[in-house]
Amino acid sequence: MARTHYSEIEGRSPGFYALLGMLGALILAGLGAAWFMEHNGHYVTGMSNRIVWGMPHVFAIFLIVAASGVLNVASIASVFGRDLYKPLARLSGLLALTLLAGGLAVLVLDLGRPERLIVAMTHYNFKSIFAWNIFLYTGFYAVVALYLWTMFERRMNRHTKPAGLVAFVWRLVLTTGTGSIFGFLVAREPYNSALLAPLFIIMSFSFGLAIFVLVLMAACQWTGRPLGEVVLKRLRNLLGVFVAAVLYFVVVQHLTNLYIARQHDVERFFLWEGGVYTALFWFGQVLVGGIVPLVLLFGATSRCAIAAAAAAVILGGLAQLYVLIIGGQAYPQLMFPEKEVRSSFFDGVVAAYAPSLPEVALGVGGVALALALTAVALKVLPFLPKSLADGDVGAAAA
Amino acid sequence: MNPRRRQVLGWGAAAAAGAALAPGLRLVELALARSPEEAASKLQRWGLLIDITQCGECDACVTACSDENGWTGHGRAETDVQWIRKVSLRDKRTGYAQTLPLMCQHCEHPPCVDVCPTGASFKREDGIVLVDKHTCIGCRYCVLACPYGARSFVHEAVEGQKADVPRGKGTVESCTLCVHRVDRGATPACVEACNKDGGKAMAFGDLNDRDSAIHKRLRTEPSSQIRADLALNTGVRYQGL
Amino acid sequence: MRIAAGITAAVLTVAAHADAPRFKIERGEACVAPVAEMRRDHMKMLLHQRDRTLREGIRTTQFSLKNCVDCHASRETGSVLGKDGFCSSCHEYTAVKIDCFECHSPERQKAAAR
After folding, report:
1. Hey, which residues does B239 pair with through a beta bridge?
2. How would you label C38-49 residue by residue, b for 16+ Cβ within 10 Å and e otherwise?
3. In this predicted complex, what is the ipTM?
4. Separation in Å, CA of B182 to nearest CA in chain A
5. Which of A35, A344, A346 to mutate to test the interface with B (most CBs of B within 10 A)?
6. A233, A84 contact by CB (below 8 A)
7. Confidence of residue A41 (pLDDT cuts 50, 70, 90)
8. Which of A33, A167, A384, B3 could form a disulfide with A358 if both were Cys (CB 3.0 to 4.6 A apart)?
9. Average pLDDT, rounded, for chain B
10. Number of structural domains, chain B?
11. What is the reported pTM?
């Protein structure tokens, strides 16, 4: 198979600068929102003592989960030896770093005391899965940077496979940790489940690949690089499998809950009485995030269909995380079985929440940061292959 | 009496006196306020016993807590801090109604302590669960983890703090069992206010001290924990739930 | 050379003192430790004491922040912050931002213990 040639993007067109300008404006808005929230205190947001994690966390966790999943493409190349994916590995590694940067930025800027980040990085309670996550996230940077280096530096190419294996295992642990942040909450019915860790893993595969597909298609289209059907067909099939797998996990989780009498109230809440959460579950998560992409990916062949499917997966993923994170907090904690509960602290009732502008601005700012970093990196280093045309990727249909 | 018998009687008397006095000495040691140089110790475990059959519409405990610890509302019920609140219960089938005060339960195995990434949420040796605001980064994970919804996040700048109760924006807080009062031998403000006008709902004491009133009541009367199924071994026990 | 160095040092000292923070100590007798030690190490003492008080429950007053405030709070305003406040005057001069009083009360609330 011919050796792949990579090159930087030119990055001098008006379109490129317009893109950076727009992303820069969104980043500034996000920073402004973070300052506004920190300076005044969180009462200016829609978050409350019942819903302590809001829109910023929906975006942040989406970006972090997608960051670990987007590395899949590189792992399939290095760890599982699929040659077709090798030219895509560099972009995959880059996106892993930039998406994680965006997600962590949002998370840190939403803290009650973001200036204490140094404290968070020097005081660890090792019983906390959150503390482990901080280690795993920072370690992920080092591991992926090293992995990318083995790909860029020709003399290190023979180390790509072991580096890829380390990165693969590391991010499985990392995503398990992220899912366990919720799974380890003993006293919350929507959460305390061992299923959340593998669900997050499979969500990461799906969201990460959807973002990868969109970024790849946009980058090739806007820089005039050919992107052939062979590569797209592979990515399309893979994305379809991941979307189906997420749906499977969701079905299993809810079916099991429906079988357990104690969990009936939670299921009733999410599946038909939860208002906005029910709507987002069925229309957002299942329809837009599951069924529509499957129809588009396996029923149509046009590039528009793939791009639309990927966009639908992303929107559905955001809906899924909204239902999980915010719906899970809105559902009351059950301290007194068989009793109606009322108090000045909103015990016993479904908590109200409406996303506020600063929260959304911060979340979107994180997405913009990830994309801006990606765009700049593509200009600075040769992450993109010169061509992914069918003839150039060779007979790697193995 | 022969000398040997006298000796044995003497020893016996000394032993009996010692056995009689020793628990009393221990009692005195614990009943006195711990001196300021002494650290909190595992020998003690502070707890509350709340008999909710004595609770009515009264909320003296809530008022006393907010006065003592300096937390107030800003007219924003969703984000205002509450260290203690009255919860109203009504049985779904029978309609039987009750109220109870709910605050941090000072668990022996606190989920909030387990999940805190920096170790700011911690349990002191004598069982009081606290937040070290110097290390709290305001991530609110402990607020999610608490089974009782006991924790509040401070959503705005704080002014006019009490000297004994530092509190500030961006950190998480909850009932401290009035640790500043307990350390000088007093009782929590809620208990004092409850008992002041003859109310008998709340009692405070050392759960490890076999001679304390609270220990005796727990030993001889029925009581329960909220969410006993979680096996957290709370320091706050209820009667009449 | 030495004269130049000496003159520079003298000028700088005078200049420094001219701008030196003016603060009122408020309580005449000695502080809990010698002045030089307090200036150099007061932050270390506070850091050490805070863990002893909060985590271990040791509430000796010698190095407690509350005791510092009770002694040093201004006679007019009752606070260690604000114009001529004991803590703020030095800290604003040195541009070292402190966040102690975001949580701790800067006001004297009772007669100081010794």
Report:
1. B51
2. eeeebeebeeeb
3. 0.92
4. 26
5. A344
6. no
7. very high
8. A33
9. 90
10. 1
11. 0.90
